[in-house]
Amino acid sequence: CHYGTGVAVLAFLASIGFLVGEFLFEQMSSVKTRKHYVLLDLGYSSAWTVLYFIGFCYLANQWSNAETPEGNYGVNNVQAAICFSFFSIFTWAGCAWFAYQRFRAGVDTAFAPSYEADPSSLPGAAYTSYPGGPDSDTGYQEAPFSGNQQRGPGDYQAPAY
User: Fold this and answer.
1) Which site in 34, 40, 54, 79 is 20 to 30 Å from 112, CA atoms measured?
2) Are residues 27 and 75 in contact, defined by beta-carbon separation less than 8 angstroms?
3) Among 10, 1, 148, which residue's Cα sits nearest to residue 74?
4) Can you give the pLDDT of all 161 residues of the chain as single tens digits?
5) Number of domains present in the structure of the chain
6) Distance between CA 30 and CA 97 in Å, rounded?
7) Which GO terms describe its cellular component (predicted)?
8) Do the Cβ atoms of 107 and 34 come closer than 8 Å?
9) How far apart are the C-alpha atoms of 21 and 99, rounded to whole Å?
């Protein structure tokens, strides 16, 4: 029982640390630091997947060998511990999978802000013009504000600065 408690407490403390790391991830300016953080996340999540699997097997084996307590006192507590250790296997495996995906993405997307996406890579087509408007293929007939400007009455020339 001390094994399961120890694994759970260390996993909780590490989860808090990784949440702080995720919050600070965008402010990590070094690619090397980001890589070390992602590798630490991947390794820790993988190790805790294995430790929770061992804990689940250990708890389930001990519970199957134990005698039922008088009046079923504490049965629900033990079954909940076994159930949550089983669910934790998949939770930590999911964390390891997402850390692996982040590692595979590499540094290409590490420093790319999401608001500067390449327009050619976005799904869908560009906006169409308003109904009855010019086709988007033809473009302007002549560039606006260029060429010969018309002079007003009286042949007034604006001063050149």
Assistant:
1) 40
2) no
3) 1
4) 688 888 889 999 999 999 998 898 888 888 888 888 899 999 999 999 999 999 999 888 888 888 887 777 878 888 888 899 999 999 999 999 999 998 888 766 555 555 555 656 656 555 666 666 655 555 556 665 665 666 556 677 778 88
5) 1
6) 23
7) neuromuscular junction; synaptic vesicle membrane
8) yes
9) 13
